[in-house]
Specification:
The structure is a single chain. The chain is α+β, with helices and mostly antiparallel strands and about 425 residues long. It has 2 domains: about 240 residues, Bira Bifunctional Protein, Domain 2 (BirA Bifunctional Protein, domain 2), CATH 3.30.930.10; about 90 residues, Anticodon-binding domain (Rossmann fold, 3-Layer(aba) Sandwich), CATH 3.40.50. It has 16 helices and 16 strands. The strands form 3 sheets. Strands 1-5-6-11-10-9-7-8 form an 8-stranded mixed beta sheet. It has a 5-stranded mixed beta sheet with strand order 13-12-14-15-16, with helices on both faces. It has a 3-stranded antiparallel beta sheet with strand order 2-4-3. The longest helix has 19 residues. Bound molecules: adenosine-5'-triphosphate and magnesium ion. The site of magnesium ion has 2 residues, from loops. Magnesium ion binds next to loops.
């Protein structure tokens, strides 16, 4: 027996029952983003590999071990399936000179790819909504992005998502802290795991981000970056917190929040739920003022965040937010050659009037077609046999409302009659 083909491990099909939740989620997200003046940008899924190495940093989980990279067999170019969206967004900003004349508020939604160990809430193909703003220097945009999160949880009917924030300061402040941190870690080198040892001199800050339980206590007592911040960085951080307090948004300052990517500075934040087990971060972001210049653009301050769609959809499902079942308004039943031809005309005519129509396909007896009509959840069946077709008529039968008699109508009266019935039953509710 030949082996059946399966999807790639960690890359999931999203079947209709689930995909309806996704559409509901996407509708909510798009109107929420419009409410804050964000505009869509659509970016390629494949980018040149050096883009991610330069943007994300060589000594990061993503670049070291999670990227799907390959050589284009036709021209030898090194390419990578995007593991995140910010790098490509900044690349596009520079390439099209978008920030030259005005600030930009942009968003995108789509697949990302990381070669991780698949588990609940962690996949190899997953989806993010990414939100990026370019050209804003003050703490106001950082705070606004955080307020956006709070509003979206509300729009989605979610609660219990907690906010953590931190400031990573500026590169010079980080350098000073880094020296102190390395000296501290050197004193504990005997308990460091392999990964931490490897990062000791390349990216010691990331050691604090470790998930290894054996290192937690040591990390908790490590020199804190926040103690190395100068007046300006502290004022920026305080500015963000002030706006959050004014808006009544609860938050915790977590000095160990350093984020997985190299490009952040000043404000970083994460929204975390305890309802998804270990993979509880649903939204993460912060400021990355150096990245545009680092990728060859003019210095442009920037701030952004990304949300994990799988994790948020799981939360929405758990909270019981059902998408409305998309039942058709009308199911068209037909038998006989003339009837079938008329049925197509009727179906299109009803759709012209804005009705959702399922046209029966695949033949079968009236009885079996009526069963399908019932099962579809449609409010009405339109029934056409060759007798009706000969006179340009059809039977209209209500499948849901009580006491509405079946009636024979001219086909061009169908839409109006159906719409009238729908208005009547709306009024009764
Ligand atoms: P983690 O520490 O959980 O690996 P991360 O720091 O790598 O997260 P980001 O790069 O900040 O994650 O991505 C933003 C969001 O995208 C995460 O908070 C999460 O909701 C989601 N996300 C990241 N990786 C995955 C994945 N492999 N599968 C599903 N969602 C993911
Ligand atoms: Mg990760």
């Amino acid at each position: 027996m030949s082996q059946t083909l399966q999807s790639v491990r960690g890359m999931n099909d999203i079947l209709p029952d689930e995909a309806e939740f996704w559409e509901l989620f996407e509708d909510t997200v798009r109107s929420w983003l419009k409410g804050y003046g964000y505009r869509p940008i659509r970016l390629p899924i494949v980018e040149p590999t050096p883009l991610f190495k330069r943007a994300i940093g060589e000594v990061t989980d993503i670049v070291e071990k999670e990227m799907y990279s390959f050589e284009d067999s036709l021209n030898g170019e090194q390419l990578t399936l995007r593991p995140e969206g910010t790098a490509g967004c900044v690349r596009a900003l520079i390439q099209h000179n978008l920030a030259a004349r005005q600030n930009q508020r942009l968003y995108y939604l789509g697949q990302m790819f990381r070669h991780e160990r698949p588990q609940k809430g962690r996949y190899r193909q997953f989806h993010q909504v990414g939100v990026e703003a370019f050209g804003f220097t003050g703490p106001d945009i950082d705070a606004e992005m955080i307020l956006m999160g709070a509003r979206l949880w509300d729009d989605l009917g979610l609660d219990g998502i907690a906010l953590q924030i931190n400031s990573l300061g500026q590169p010079a402040e980080r350098a000073e802290h880094r020296a102190a941190l390395i000296a501290y870690l050197e004193k504990h080198v005997d308990i460091l795991d392999e990964e931490a040892k490897r990062r000791l001199y390349t990216n010691p800050l990331r050691i604090l981000d470790t998930k290894n339980p054996a290192l937690q206590e040591m990390c908790a007592a490590a020199p804190r970056l926040i103690d190395y911040l100068g007046a300006e960085s502290l004022a920026h951080f305080e500015g963000v917190q002030q706006i959050l307090r004014d808006a009544g948004i609860a938050f915790t300052v977590n000095p160990r929040l350093v984020r997985g990517l190299d490009y952040y500075n000043l404000t970083v934040f994460e929204w975390v739920t305890d309802k998804l087990g270990a993979q509880g971060t649903v939204c993460a972001g912060g400021r990355y003022d150096g990245l545009v210049e680092q990728l060859g653009g003019k210095p442009t301050p920037a701030c952004g965040f990304a949300m994990g769609v799988e994790r948020l959809v799981a939360l929405v499902r758990e909270a019981g937010g059902e998408p409305a079942a998309p039942a058709p308004d009308v199911y068209v039943v037909h038998q006989g050659e003339a009837a079938s031809r008329l049925a197509f005309r009727v179906g299109e005519g009803l759709r012209d009037q804005g009705l959702n129509v399922l046209l029966h396909c695949g033949g079968g007896s009236f009885k079996s077609q009526m069963k399908k009509a019932d099962g579809s959840g449609a409010a009405f069946a339109v029934i056409i046999g060759d007798d009706e077709a000969a006179t340009g008529e059809a039977q209209l039968k209500s499948l849901r409302a009580e006491g509405v008699a079946q009636q024979k109508l001219k086909v061009d009266e169908l839409a109006e009659t159906i719409i009238d019935h729908m208005i009547d039953s709306d009024e009764e509710e």
